[in-house]
Amino acid sequence: MQRSPAVRGRGITKSFGEVIALDGVDLDVASGQVHGLVGPNGAGKTTLLGLLLGLAVADGGRLEILGTPVGRTLAVPDGVAGFVDGPGLYPSLTARQNLSALASLRGYDTGRTAGVDDALEQVGLTDVADDRIRGFSLGMRQRLGLAAALLTTPRLLVLDEPANGLDPAGKHHVHRVIAGLAAEGTAVVLSSHRMDDLAALCSEVTLLATGRVVFSGPVSKLAAESGELDYRLRTSDPAAAHQVALDTSGLRVVPGRDRVEPDADVLVVHGPVTALDELVRRLVRADVAVRELAPVVPPLEAAYLALTGAAQEDLVAEQSDSTLVVSPTQEVP
Hints:
Layout: E1 5-16, E2 19-30, E3 34-38, H1 45-52, E4 60-65, E5 68-69, E6 80-83, H2 95-105, H3 116-122, H4 138-149, E7 156-160, H5 168-183, E8 187-191, H6 195-201, E9 204-209, E10 212-218, H7 219-224, E11 229-235, H8 238-246, E12 252-253, E13 266-271, H9 273-285, E14 290-295, H10 299-321
Parallel strand pairs: 3-8, 3-9, 6-7, 7-8
Antiparallel strand pairs: 1-2, 1-4, 4-5, 9-10, 11-13, 11-14, 12-13
Helix pairs in contact: 3-4
């Protein structure tokens, strides 16, 4: 069954003076989906999140949120919650007082709220509910910001780097909350620089570079865009493994050990997965035990670097091509 779209954007543009933040961006997020937004600094992620939260308006294009067209006013439909650039909090108040004040300011009906205590419990802050947040770590503030978004049951949750500063326990709480909301039908859009968070949480991802979409689709498809990778190989017989690798078609031994930890037992090879499969078969036949075979750079990170790097190169080439030198006798087209 096809899920209804929570976000549908077509050709979205946004500029700040001469700086183009978004340049014809398309975005589709289905209800019940965790959608990752990723890209280098300055790619337009924060600008796009701000549009989804009604903190800014687009210059052009079409944007629908929860089935409602968003026009040229700073407003979004009910059911949208989240934060950009970190949650806004009162440092002199406790965690519980912050959420209570927010509920009061927004005029939340008690019948509609999940409850302050329940929200604090969901993000794992019950034990510090009555502590002033001026002493909170960055990760604890992020979790409190998520709790604030949960005061009402959002249908679209927008989060900017929700795992920033989290320890393993906090990360577990946040991941569990996000996954649970998606399972209940909430659409979640989150930005992150952490590829492991994308792999763990997101079913779809949009990759931005220089204000443009360079990839949009399933996370598994993004990983496939990484192409050939460097792999770290550790075996019971490094010398024999080195010779087997040299004899394996489509595989290249990477000279030097500066790309991995200085370990004489580690060999770095480069090639496609099919060549790696053949290498393992040959090592087994040669009675060489494989103790480790893993990419030096994870596939998602490798795809990110490849796609964003290509986008930056295309932009430089485009700007270079757009420079027109006119001689005195030349007509400008």
